[in-house]
Design goal:
about 45% helix; about 160 residues; alpha/beta
Length: about 160
């Protein structure tokens, strides 16, 4: 069975499981304020990363972001140690961001706060949600605008792992 097929099966199962679960929330008290970031800091993070990176741009007020959050959470858990997941919360408030992370159990990957939305603009994107896929060292492999689905996420993760391997 190919890695791509395994990812598709895994993500489909995760999506079904996520829909069946009432909640994957975590206590908000365990979610610290998000560290503010800049385009330069994110570019440095990407350049220094030894792993491929899935970078998701989101906001707590974004309804489509809510629909993709469980999928990203589950994919990050399954790819732990192989793919680095980074969230960039844009044009938001810290309290809303922390509530969003707690509600969807997104504490399993890194999150940064971009009050002005400068990071996605620097990466060539506008709006939310956005998902970028980077090879180790920061080369942009793909960008997805709008809500990402299981198939697209699985294919892009497979591509990142193929490049890395």
């Amino acid at each position: 069975m190919t890695l791509r097929r395994r990812w598709r099966i895994l993500l489909a199962a995760l999506a079904i499981g996520a829909a069946a679960c009432s909640s994957a929330s975590v206590p908000i008290e365990g979610i610290p304020p998000l560290e503010a970031t800049t385009p330069a800091a994110i570019r440095a993070l990407l350049a220094e990363s030894q792993q491929p990176v899935v970078l998701n741009v989101w906001a707590s007020w974004c309804t489509p972001c809510r629909s993709e959050a469980p999928l990203l959470r589950d994919a990050a858990a399954q790819a732990a140690g192989k793919v680095r997941f980074v969230g960039i919360d844009v044009r938001d408030q810290q309290d809303g961001a922390r509530r969003f992370i707690a509600e969807f159990g997104l504490d399993g990957f890194e999150h940064y706060f971009d009050e002005t939305g400068a990071v996605p603009a620097d990466l060539g994107g506008v709006g939310v949600p956005l998902t970028f896929f980077f090879a180790p060292g920061g080369e942009l492999i793909a960008a997805h605008r709008g809500v990402i689905d299981e198939r697209t996420l699985a294919l892009q993760i497979d591509e990142l792992l193929r490049i890395e391997g």
